[in-house]
Amino acid sequence: MQFVRTLTILLLFLLPINAKANEAKNWLKIEIDKIIYAYQNQDLPNENRFLMIEQTINNNFAGSGIAKFVAGKSWSESSKETKLEYIKLFKRHLALNIASMMQGYSNQKYQLIHSNYDEKNKVTMIDMEIFSETGSIQVTWRVKKSKERFFVIDLLVADISLVVTKRSEFNSMLKTVDYNLQKLNEKLAAQNEISYNKIIN
Length: 201
What we know:
Elements: H1 2-40, H2 46-60, H3 63-71, H4 80-102, E1 109-118, E2 123-132, E3 135-146, E4 149-157, E5 160-161, H5 162-176, H6 181-200
Antiparallel strand pairs: 1-2, 2-3, 3-4, 4-5
């Protein structure tokens, strides 16, 4: 009888956690399908396709938080205007990166295979398997709910964090401009322009 009571309490504790994980998983599937739809629609011009992806990423990635983390110590030493410009440029950089990765898309199938809610950090980890002719790759999305909305806070490919990778990449760029965020903005704007032209042409 004690075992039954313990099991019942455990299930009552786990049900809300599982519900939270499933809610985030269902949301993520809808957002991923929006991006895939853009690439399945062959009649859509490259520019429109990218703008759809950029809008989806801007709406669903915690771009400002990621940008701030990636900027490191240069963030606190910058003006408000510089920070706002940097966030805008970083979000476009992120969208261009993901759009560039999607250029190789050719109707691969994917499956959201597992989701787990981390009660301590209030984060849902969602594992996705992407299938191709040569095999499959696993991607893990880290999703957090804020103000009744979900946001992607990180993406792990083969256990490598996008956010950590970007911090290392941007730290190298910041070194070349003596950690001056305003000068980084100039470099990032030029880099974004080159990437954008490659994607739409």
